[in-house]
Automatic annotation (TrEMBL):
SMART domains: HATPase_c (SM00387), HisKA (SM00388), REC (SM00448). The keyword Phosphoprotein applies. The modification 4-aspartylphosphate is found at residue 469. Its EC number is 2.7.13.3. The keyword Phosphoprotein applies. It holds the Pfam family HisKA. This is histidine kinase. Residues 169-392 form the Histidine kinase domain. It is an enzyme of class 2 (transferase). Keywords: Phosphoprotein.
Length: 542
């Protein structure tokens, strides 16, 4: 048999005992050749257990060399069939026939080995497939989370934009009411100047203070709604922070340490300097209130080029910015508070301790300036950051905003404005009435128009200056009217007045003056004089 197997190029392993046979039955064995006599020496249960212990792909061929047929031959064959893949050959047998039987068994076994290799390869593919499915599932989960985050951010942006329009509209109407109140106070002061009554003056002072608080409130609302007119210019933050240091340290008090970190080479930014100072002051006040027992406040400034790796708060910005970050050591904000912190009138302070407009002003100012504001908070403290765009080259506002008036009363302005004719364009009749009173005190002649269409019908040759509201009904607003007047008469001084502008960026392309409502008579006279001087206009008798 060994020679037959060698002729088939198969190495033969001869087992001299049943134990050697049991050990030889394994996955690597090609086939098992056993005589009926040798089989009789084996424990049928042990041999059957070894054969049945094969893996699923394996069915080792067994060739049994049986003795010549004799009594009980059928029963013996039935017992041999339990071994599985059995071929029984009766002796004697020709060498060639034996070689054919061995070759057939080997072929069967080789097919089993191929199946084994394919199953192994399939197993590897299955593992790789599972790995890729897990990776793709994780990627899909991340994409779904990112999509949900973007959708939530979009919904939040739309909600805040709607809230901004609402607050801006309220501030516009409120500003007109404040204009009537503050303008009325100015007129009463002018009318009673010859015979002042102390009691009346105290009442007027109280009304004026209340009007001033209301004006500040509307300014914060407009800042949140991004509807205020900004006087953007190049701001040196190093110099600005030095100027503010004394005020900020005085604001926080003795129990709180304030550190201001301004590195060398800090870029200038393009922003409204006044609104910038208000934003920083609001942040310092909030940080102070978050630490009633004292602590450390750090105001740090740095240059940054966005986007920055790992900072999701700045992922939407590109380019050079300056980051103004204020950190405190308070108790921080929870997730719910953090989500509402920028909303107007939201506050965690006690009743009467805050309006809830400080952070909303910060966000509105940053966004309208082309930057961004965001908050990072944990139980160890809070950091509020403002990003403002770097200013490169010459920069400044094209809409001239009237500086703080140096005139102490209306009479000082009336000396130089007396006799001039002003075209006043105002759709609110109460505000128009107050403005008419102011111009009367200034000694100016008044031409009134309720909207831009009426204003354009006026003969401009008889007009020395124009004061116009911005938000008006009709075919165009005040900004459109200013552009039309500039085309019709380039030398005509124009001053726009408003507390609410739907698109403040449109002012940047105009060469006009601007005053914020509610305005005083001194503000109006200063703005008109400034524009008249700037346009080269001089008063002439009528």
């Amino acid at each position: 048999m060994a020679s037959v197997l060698e002729g088939c190029e198969v190495a033969a392993h001869v087992c001299g005992s049943p134990e050697q046979l049991y050990r030889a039955v394994n996955d690597d064995a090609l086939l098992l050749v056993i005589t009926e006599e040798g089989l009789a020496q084996c424990d049928a249960r042990l041999l059957l257990a070894r054969i049945r212990a094969q893996p699923a792909w394996s069915n080792i061929p067994v060739i049994v060399l049986a003795a010549s047929a004799r009594a009980g031959h059928g029963e013996r064959l039935k017992r041999l069939a339990q071994l599985g893949n059995v071929t029984v050959i009766s002796r004697p047998i020709a060498r060639e026939a034996m070689a054919m039987a061995v070759g057939s068994a080997l072929h069967s076994r080789q097919l089993q080995f191929k199946l084994r290799d394919q199953l192994t390869e399939l197993g590897r593919y299955s593992v790789e497939l599972e790995r890729r499915v897990d990776e793709r599932s994780a990627a899909l989960a991340r994409e779904v989370d990112e999509r949900k985050r973007i959708e939530a951010a979009l919904l939040e942006s739309r909600r805040l934009e709607s809230l901004g329009r609402l607050t801006g509209g309220i501030a516009h109407d409120f500003n007109n009411m404040l204009q009537v109140v503050s303008g009325g106070v100015q007129l009463l002061r002018a009318l009673t100047a010859a015979a002042p009554d102390p009691r009346l003056q105290r009442t007027l002072d109280s009304i004026e203070r209340a009007s001033g608080h209301g004006a500040k409130l509307t300014q914060q609302l407009l800042a949140y709604g991004r509807r205020q007119a900004l006087s953007a210019s190049a701001v040196d933050l190093n110099e600005r922070m030095q100027d503010m240091a004394v005020l900020l340290r005085h604001t926080v008090g003795r129990e709180i340490r304030l550190t201001i970190e301004v590195p060398d080479g800090l870029w200038p930014v393009r922003a409204d300097a006044t609104q910038l100072e208000m934003a920083v002051l609001n942040l310092v006040l909030n940080a102070r209130d978050a630490m009633p027992d004292g602590g450390q406040i750090t105001l740090s400034l740095r240059n940054c080029t966005l986007p920055e790796a790992g900072n999701r708060d700045t992922a939407s910005l590109r380019g050079d910015y300056v980051c103004i970050a204020l950190s405190d050591q308070g108790c921080g904000m929870d997730k719910a508070t953090l989500g509402q912190a920028f909303e107007p009138f939201f506050t965690t302070k006690a009743m009467g301790k805050g309006t809830g407009l400080g952070l909303s002003q910060v966000q509105g100012f940053a966004t309208q300036s082309g930057g961004h504001a965001f908050i990072q908070s944990d139980p160890n403290g809070t950091t509020v950051s403002i990003l403002l765009p770097r200013c490169i080259g010459r920069d400044g506002a094209t809409a001239a905003t009237a500086p703080a008036p140096q005139l102490d009363d209306l009479a000082a302005g009336s000396i130089r404005l007396h006799g001039l004719t002003v075209l006043c364009v105002e759709d609110d009749p109460l505000v128009a009435e107050v403005a008419a009173g102011i111009f009367d005190v200034l000694g100016m002649k008044l031409i009134a128009a309720a909207n831009a269409d009426e204003a354009l019908e006026v003969d401009l040759d008889g007009v020395d200056a124009v004061l116009s509201d911005v938000m008006m009904p009709g075919s165009m607003d005040g900004i459109g009217l200013a552009a039309a007047l500039r085309r019709a008469r380039p030398d005509l001084p124009v001053v726009l007045a408003s507390g609410y502008i739907s698109s403040p960026e449109r002012l940047q392309s105009l060469d006009v003056g601007f005053v914020q409502k509610p305005y005083s008579g001194a503000h109006i006279s200063a703005a008109l004089l400034r524009e008249i001087a700037r346009m080269g206009q001089r008063s002439r008798p009528r």
